[in-house]
Write the structure tokens for this entry.
Amino acid sequence: MRVVMGGMASRLDVPLDRLDDVELAVETLLAEEPVDGHELLLELAAVEGGLDVRLYGLLNRRVRAALVATDPFEPCEGCLLDVRVMLESLVDAFSVVESSGGSYGVLMEKRTS
Amino acid sequence: MPAVGSERDPIPTAGVVPYAERPDALSERELLVRARIHGDAAAREELITRYLPLVKSLARRFASRGQPVEDLVQVGSIGLIKAIDRFDLDRGVELSTYATPTIMGEIKRYFRDKGWAVKVPRALQDLNVKLNRVIEQLTVQLRRSPTIAELAAAAQVTEEEVVEALESGRAYSSVSLFSGGSGEDDDSLELLDVLGSEEEAYEVFERRRMLAPAMSRLDPRERLILHLRFFEGMTQTQVAARIGISQMHVSRLIRKSIENLRQYMAEDETLAEAARGRGKV
């Protein structure tokens, strides 16, 4: 995953520290997922001035609840780490979308300049 | 005693599987259908037997890395079994295509879980060290973190080599958090001096109820790094400049701190479950 993202970043001139943030954001979400080998889809897209990262197929509803909570200080109960705090620091914007089969996706934007 | 095989007493066939249906006579596809759809244990066993040479071949790639090949074959076999059990017949790929990364992943995980870094080729190690220096130089020169293209140009290597070398650098994550690794000396690691009071950082975490009890188990310096990055809102480059270490080192420290936190949180959760009488320790 990191090699693929690195390859993408090299073509978009993404500074290293920002690339590392994006990788860490994805790794943070993955770490909260159950380890049953279910399928995930990672999409990367170059947009003007940044990078769009979309991770679909996530199942951890507690993480989802924390990400969409209206109270930003609501703790991520049951999560290993407070994913919301981390995403707020690691990417410039994020949102949650529902996807098929009861899973959800997290859309993240990272400015590269 | 009647003669076996006579017309009157034909050869008993009960329990004998005709050759065409014996697992060792079936194609891989047929075995997969039997194993995955019909739960045929004999077919699954035959697939494992057929693919064991692949496991051995992959395990031998790690032969010089301090662990007995026999152990790696055993670990790799777990990966093979997982691959067989998870294989999707509708994907249109060979089992070997699917099994190879699964087996490799299992072997690498074994090294990682044991705390051993996967051995990185010497040339990549050297390039990683070189890139550490180049990143620092370019960060000062450009006043921002360099891009991969800029690194490649400065180090006179391809962008692919830069990506590979940076990735290989993660193999050193088991190195002590504050043990330099890229030329930083110990004097630069008096992190607490930077903030003044590490308790301040701890309180912020507590207020936010971010990580609860696990935070107290972190090294004070680990807490500081996380505080600067996630609560002060500093970028990795800014944290690096503030503390006096390289951005790559900050990256490694953040990952290691998070990894430790995650582990502590999981341990705490397990203990809490046990205390409630419904978990396992």
